[in-house]
Amino acid sequence: MSSGKTVAEQILSARSGVDARAGDVVVCEVDWILGTDAATPMAIGYFEKMGGQSVRDPSRVMFALDHYSPPTTPRTKAFHDQVRAFARKHGIEVRDVGAGISHQLLLESGRAKAGDLVVGADSHTVTCGALGLFATGIGSSDLAAAMVTGQIWLRIPETIQVTLTGERAEGVSAKDMALALVAQVGGEGANYQAVEFRGPAAEALPLEDRLVLCNLAVEMSAKAAMFPVGPADPGARYARAVSLDLSALSPVVALPDAPANVTAIGNAAGTPVHMVFVGTCAGGRVSDIREVLRVIERAGGRVATGVQLVVTPASREVERKLTADGTLPRLASMGATITTPGCGACCGTSGVIPEDGMNVMSTANRNFRGRMGNPRASIYLASPAACAAAAVSGHITDPRTMGR
Amino acid sequence: MEVRLEGRARKFGDDINTDYIISSTRKKETLDEAELKRYLMETLDPDFAASVRPGDLLVAGKNFGCGSAMEVAATVILAAGIQAVLAQSFSRTFYRNAINNGLVALEFDTSTIREGDRLSIELTETMLTVGDLTTCVRSSVATRLPEPLLGILECGGLVGYLKQRGGFRTP
User: Fold this and answer.
1) Which of A223, A219, A134 is nearest to A184 (CA)?
2) pLDDT tens across B7-57, in order?
3) CATH number of this structure's domain B3-165, picked from the four choices 3.40.50.10490, 3.20.19.10, 3.40.50.880, 3.20.20.120
4) Residue B164 sits at the chain A interface (C-beta within 8 Å)
5) Nearest CA of chain B to the CA of A112: how many Å?
């Protein structure tokens, strides 16, 4: 048996105290536990049913009120009150409405570090793997058990090694890379598996691009996705190797109703767009929203008549930076609706729900039918630049053709 | 441990995501599964929920339960009286949530099973046998449920497991 380990095997062996390999089931000590307003109310129910008296280490738990931000019904308001009361009782930090998306807040806190194990009751918790740690999404019962015991059971995943090579052309974004990879690997191509991003082009990527690649890895069903901090362990065994040549990529769009339903943006050009949504843990960070403004301004600075542009910063920190540099005020002056930081319209829990028959162009990561709260709307996923191009033209447009 | 179930197959296709199982917008109003079960699979088939009979078995293609990690996707199925899901494959978060709630989630080649077929399921620690009593096709596959998964299923879910054992027992 080879001595080398994948990063997933290294981290989960260290956190379980067992020299474990892919396929083994281990019980791990958790470093960070994230709860959201969507999953924590149910977790509180499990906590009580489990006979939970106290939280093992409340300093390692954080709740974010991000999905119902702000709450729009008495029921969701009650969820928030329930989460706040539980947190107060057990000494857990609550990041309240408007603070931002749970895993974005962990990233911004600077507390999570390479080698950590992060579990979050939000499937996009995998985003944190950009820091070289193992982050995975869990449900409410796991969240409750992790609070009670400080532990979680995990099957150690096999790992797909994704090697990024080449230099991307002007106008090709991290979102294009991520969607191209989802299409290549498939919607369930990485199920039960982890992804390690390697190669010279991976090492050259800035953090915000790494976050997008890790974020979208869950759309190929990955359990975790990582940009490791060190070189691959000699002799580590990978389930398979995938390579992505960035120089061969061009802007793409994911057509309804699956993120893997990817095509070159030119193939969808001309499709009318009625709503443009800029936000979420895939496309609501500083560089994303600045890019949207840049493309719109380069193309004349006007949003097409009949297009509703909705902008939701991923966090208050993002909002603060983009207010200070004038980005959000300028977008607002063009008629954009700027909403409270958080998950926004992504899964129909807060923000703007599209009308029947609407086509939505979105920087988000999921376009399942009904995802944004209306099954009679259609969702297209693309880069911030392509979303901006759609906002200007009123239809799907290759962003490379804008403002030239 | 041994699980024996018999029921009517309710067939779905590939990539049934958690928003299809139960819409996020419904979850805004209540977390009560007894209420939410009325909307089970409503995006795909608005009449489905009303047609479910206790003991029905969900049968699906690949990647069942993909999408969000929301746990009601598993508990609403149980609330509807469905005790098991057979699928070519599951999304990992759905699989976890199913096990943690005592919903029997089994990987199996479901391609020959049709809507309405009468099925029998026998699960032991090492073997899964599914009989289609309508088409008279019966097949077995080797299966392995390591600890603590088996223990969790035996206890009817994570709640029972932790109450009984007081914590995770390292396998």
Assistant:
1) A219
2) 999 999 999 999 899 988 888 788 889 999 999 999 999 999 999 999 999
3) 3.20.19.10
4) no
5) 22
